[in-house]
Design goal:
Layout lengths: L19 E5 L2 E4 L4 E4 L2 H4 L8 H13 L10 H14 L2 E6 L2 H16 L3 E5 L8 H5 L4 H4 L9 E4 L4 H7 L4 E6 L2 E2 L5 E2 L2 H14 L2 E5 L13 H5 L5 E4 L10 E6 L19 H13 L2 H19 L4 E7 L2 E6 L4 H10 L2 E2 L1 E3 L3 E4 L7 H15 L1
Parallel strand pairs: 3-15, 5-6, 5-7, 7-10, 10-11
Antiparallel strand pairs: 1-2, 2-3, 4-12, 8-9, 11-12, 13-14, 14-17, 16-17
Bound molecules: pyridoxal-5'-phosphate.
Length: 379
């Protein structure tokens, strides 16, 4: 019998042979009692660390009160979260859903409705999710090929090629869709001049500039939104991963200047805005203060310096605690396995990049422990 048929799960992930039963801060405990230092954080999701008291208390209190009403009615956590995110953005309206891909789907539909146009300009090597619209805008042909035809109207341009971007955006462009730092594609930051050019070309042609901050948002790069670091404000932004510290949530935030295009019936989600997820997300937003963001920034800089000095490391990219490490002569998969054997969790981004995305609350001492294991594995 085919081994995959024996599993009760469809074969979508190359899952490591370890089952976790408990989490605490930057640590996970497996079912055999062994503790692992977690520099994956559920792929940049557990922003404040496992079982952080603030989202835990907020979600627990909400679980005791009300789980679900649908969007036919208001709930306090959803309204409060929309308000908190609007304040962070500088004036915005929110649509809530359950994942990053759903947030991107909402962004694509919103841009089409707002402009009455079909075109989406996205980047080579981008990643926006696995649903049909988000996958159509994902600039990695190998991920798309088996599922085509997908949503039509997407044009891809190389990252940081201002001329190609200017040629691609025209009177049929609904939006330019960018990740400020390409995450799944291997941790590649866009150049500021390119993002600035995207802002200008979108304005010239009346298209929306949408940043997909599913991975870079919620403090991951040392500012709440990665665009704050660049000083270039998009018309709309998607968030997901870190927003509720591990409970499923996604959001499309549309800045006030671009708001008003959706009317009732245009879009929806039965579970979107779930009170428990939104209560946890409010606690996350309230915990990510200037002090924590400064720690993310300084711990990230400290880590870049030390990672760069490790054997076999040829490049360290990214910002804050979203880092990609390039290795010479070492297969990332082998390094990931060897680290796991030494009780350190890291993962990959793209084909050849080691990805480091610990909880934003990780301590210097924990980072030093992780570096010691990486050094041993890489020597
Ligand atoms: N957009 C970006 C930038 C991402 O990094 C991801 C996931 O890695 C997604 C969208 C899709 O998010 P999800 O897996 O929650 O659907």
């Amino acid at each position: 019998m085919n081994a995959t048929l024996q599993s009760p799960l469809l074969d979508t992930y190359p899952r490591a042979d370890v089952t976790f039963v408990d989490g605490d801060g930057a640590w996970l405990t497996a079912d055999d009692g062994v503790r692992y230092l977690d520099l994956v954080a559920g792929i940049a999701v557990v922003a404040l660390g496992h079982r952080h008291p603030a989202p835990l208390a907020a979600a627990q209190a909400q679980l005791e009160r009300l789980w679900h009403t649908s969007n036919l009615y208001g709930t306090e956590p959803m309204q409060r979260l929309a308000q908190l995110l609007s304040e962070r953005f500088g004036g915005a309206q929110a649509f809530f859903c359950n994942s990053g891909a759903e947030a991107v789907e909402a962004a694509i539909k919103y841009a089409r409705k707002a402009t009455g146009r079909k075109g989406i300009v996205a980047l080579d090597n981008s990643f926006h999710g696995r649903t049909a619209g988000a996958l159509a805008a994902t600039g990695q042909p190998a991920k798309r090929a088996a599922f085509e035809p997908l949503v039509p109207g997407v044009t891809f341009v190389p990252a940081n090629d201002i001329g190609a971007l200017a040629d691609a955006v025209d009177a049929d462009t609904a939006c330019v869709l960018l990740e400020p730092i390409q995450g799944e594609g291997g941790i590649h930051a866009l150049e500021k001049q390119f993002v600035q050019a995207a802002r200008e070309v979108a304005d010239t042609h009346g298209a929306l500039l949408v940043f997909d901050e599913v991975q870079t948002g919620v403090g991951r790069t040392g500012t709440f939104f990665a665009w704050e670091r660049l000083g270039i404000r998009p018309d709309a932004v998607t968030l997901a991963k870190g927003l509720a510290n591990g409970l499923p949530i996604g959001t499309l935030l549309v800045g006030d200047a671009a708001a008003g295009a959706f009317v009732p019936g245009d879009h929806g989600s039965t579970f979107g805005g779930n009170p428990v997820a939104c209560a946890a997300a409010c606690a996350v937003c309230e915990t990510i203060d200037d002090e924590l963001l400064a720690d993310v920034h300084s711990n990230g800089a400290w880590l870049v310096e030390r990672l760069s000095a490790l054997p076999a490391v040829t490049d360290v990219r990214g910002a804050g605690l979203l880092l990609g490490v390039e290795l010479a002569g070492r297969e990332p998969g082998d390094v990931i396995d060897a680290c796991r054997e030494k009780r350190l969790l890291v993962c990959a981004a793209g084909e050849r990049t080691l990805r480091i995305t610990p909880p934003l609350t990780i301590t210097r001492d924990e980072l030093a422990q992780a570096l010691a294991i990486l050094e041993e594995v890489l020597k």
